[in-house]
Amino acid sequence: YYFPCQRWLAVEEDDGQIVRELVPVDEAFVKKDTENDGQSLATLGLEQKAKSTTYTVKVKTGDKKNAGTDANVFITLYGSKDDTGTVSLKASKINKNKFERGKVDEFTVESVDIGDLKKIKIGHDNKGNSTGWFLVWVEIDAPSLGRCLKFPCGRWLDKSEDDGAVARIIFPAELQTTEYIP
């Protein structure tokens, strides 16, 4: 089995991910690549894209006192076929300092096809100075599937607030789901 990557594993490069889920490709793609055929790399990228889905994950932190967090935030997307496993939300595309009071952060999550998105688990490791976090909502857009789902939360993920949970399982609000042409 061949699992080519051809991507950065670095917070400050590419999409900021330090973990990647790789899909197997046909042996022919790997053999062509050794002959320095630039076209095979492009074809390889298309082959991998066909087997995976890119999600845009937007996260809204509440506009309350001490709502932001310095803890390491993670998310797991659960679909009808599979789940993404735990994905660290390391590099926001919008803000250098992520998960601050009243801000929306945007992340890219790539995964094999997990089917229709059913629920998410989002939380943090409770490490750092100010760990408590007030999460308003999570929005997940899958352009290749033509669906954008909103996961309302409106609760604290904090050991000393609400019910003390630092991770929550959230279901999409059906009335806030948008469907469009992929």
Automatic annotation (TrEMBL):
Segments forming domain PLAT: 1-23, 53-171
CDD domains reported for this sequence: PLAT_repeat
Pfam families: PLAT
PANTHER family according to UniProt: LIPOXYGENASE HOMOLOGY DOMAIN-CONTAINING PROTEIN 1, PROTEIN CBG12474
Protein's name in the database: LOXH1 protein
Native source organism of the sequence: Ceyx cyanopectus (Indigo-banded kingfisher)
Name of encoding gene: Loxhd1_0
